[in-house]
Amino acid sequence: MPDYGHELAFGTFITPQSARPADVVALARLTEHAGLELATFQDHPYQPRLLDTWTLLAWVAAETELLRVASNVLNVPLRGPALIARSAAGLDLLSGGRFELGLGAGAFWDEIAAMGGRRLTGGQSVQALEEAIDVIRLLWDADEQSPAHFDGEHYRLDGARRGPAPFHDVALWIGAYKPRMLDLVGRKGDGWLPSEPYLQPGDLTAGNAAIDAAARRAGREPAAIRRLLNVAPRQGSTARWAEELAGLALEDGISTFLVMADDSATIQTFASQVVPTVRELVGNGRLGGTVPAEPVQTELGVTPTLDDGSRVGATAPWDEATRPRRTADTNIAFTERGRLVAQHLIDVHDMLRTELRELREILARVRDGALTAGQARSALNEMALRQNDWTLGAFCARYCAVVAQHHGLEDEAIFPHLARSEPELAPVIGRLVDEHVVIGDAIQQVDRALVQHITDPTEFGPIQDAIDFLTDALLSHLSYEEQQLVEPLARLGFYPGQVQ
Prior knowledge:
Largest sheet: 8 strands, parallel, barrel
CATH topology of the largest domain: TIM Barrel
Shape: globular
């Protein structure tokens, strides 16, 4: 996709943790002192471990001088558009035009309903967000003297007074991933604000195309819509990180980068070492220059996880002796991008291993009576979950969804890329795909065992057996995958845009 030509902007995406409010504000101040333009915060009003976003935005705006602040993104179903319009205009007036409004259609409908909000379907939530945008803009139109009227399926205005108008033209940035939401961004949004961890390869290209098409159908110029991105910190070379972001700017039109960071070191590194290089590379690229080629290296520098052979279940998920093995390449050169990709695979696997341990520990503590309901609930609140029989299911569902998403990305994008680049890997990749099917079945068995456990809370045998089988399958699979693919990934690399 083309570079839309917007001026670059950089900022932070900080978790508004209620347990450490002073730290959150300090990170926002650091954002300003480091020379970044924008501090943003997520909005989950049903989550007590997070500060109220409106309160935090106002506080941070008052504690800073030049920093812009924004919701990333606001929970419209619980906030309501009329009050959002008044609050946003007020904050923008008080801050002298330093507020931007990120909007979301809503998620976590059980939690929203528990707070008194309406439970909506996917289609209803998109329609409601579109109506909310119309309501907000009607009320901001203070030059219009007549009362505001709006008769929608989800929101109404019956002669509401307009105003106040914001200090400046507040941008409406929309968090969107699916087709109807992307269409809404193109028709009525001022910006597209997705998060990098939730994107799969090719999603930026496809999302931009959908937004651009919707904009043109609505008589708008695609370049009127800013493209923003919440970006995860990178390990390793800051120069490589900067080159990746510059590529996203020049090839995918991203002009605002918000680093997802809750520590001062990451923010300072991003501001002092990454941002200046991104600005230089994009400036050169827009003048017809090129991003310099990255150097190659001879040391892998990434360590695959070994399988120690220990197992917890009575049934083996497969015959490991039948696994194909790749032939090691003796003529090896690694790029920094490739090494980062390989390390990212291990990092994702380590996250899966950690959460699997958590799942096993929670089950053991409840089963053994080591946790009362209140104590277990407190322990799980740190993971944004409640502890009870249903919570075991909810936690497993969250964990299993991450596994499924990770495997889906591998099956649909990473594996085909490796097979195209190195056909000798085809037998290994075929086996890994087959093992994904076994793990998917194991996940379903855990779900079935959880249902049985809910109906008989004294019976833990089936769920323990199911989790033991999943444990053996997943840990064996992750190690095998790393042993076979880390080195090829470090040589061949993988990044959004490689998918054909």
